[in-house]
């Protein structure tokens, strides 16, 4: 064995010390586990305020009553002006979050790692426990008594959801809950074909829904800019021929937040990427702090 001089030993020790300090803190140890990725539970938990608002707020109830009142006024006027020889009158409406409250299904995902799937949605529809939205049953019954046809143009599909939905509709007092009037999805989610079929034989007084795709304005699978532009083009018809309900928990507005013009590409993102897209879509304002005054001062910048 070779023995080193005291001077050399000190120099080597000093070099090792510098090398150790310059190295990452984990040097010589097993790598620390990477930070946990953004989970489905994390993404679900972002929905809590929206679901709480829909289930509890007086304001949500007010908006529902307002929409049904406006729609019923339009139907009453149409019936009063209907003449012999005219096409029979009808209304066309979505079901979910238009007359049917599914917020318990959405809220049931919060705090879990579960997600929407064809299986879980079928179980929900089969259970037949969705409630009527505030004022929905009364509105539909009034339309029925006026002799107006009611067509439920839902994207629940005929094969998996019709029977359970029919039971649910009847249990909560929705009239005309039969195979003729429940025009559910068969081969496409684009409702325009079903709208055209109804309009061929009926004068549709109002279209009602919580999604732009529930209206015959051509937004199906369009990006955000196109969707907004089409809505702007039809602005004079809202509150008249088109009646819309608030739904902050889901809808085609969500994938449209990924502003790449490719509808559906959002669904291929990771949970963390979806959350980032949601956050980047926001127009924000924050108070400004200055070096001279550490206290928060008002600012007016937005991004």
Explain this structure to me?
This protein has 303 residues and is α/β, with parallel strands linked by helices. It is built from eleven helices and six strands. The strands form two sheets. Strands 4-1-5-6 form a four-stranded parallel β-sheet, with helices on both faces. Strands 2-3 form a two-stranded antiparallel sheet. Helix 4 packs parallel to helix 7 (136-145) and helix 6 (118-127) packs parallel to helix 8 (158-171). It is globular and about 75 Å long. It starts with 5 loop residues before the first helix and ends in a 23-residue tail after the last helix. 25% of the residues are buried. The model is unreliable at 1-31 (pLDDT under 50).
Quick structural overview:
With 303 residues, this protein is of the alpha/beta class. The protein has helices spanning 6-22, 40-45, 48-56, 58-81, 103-107, 118-127, 136-145, 158-171, 192-201, 224-233, 271-280; strands spanning 89-93, 100-101, 131-132, 149-152, 203-209, 242-244.
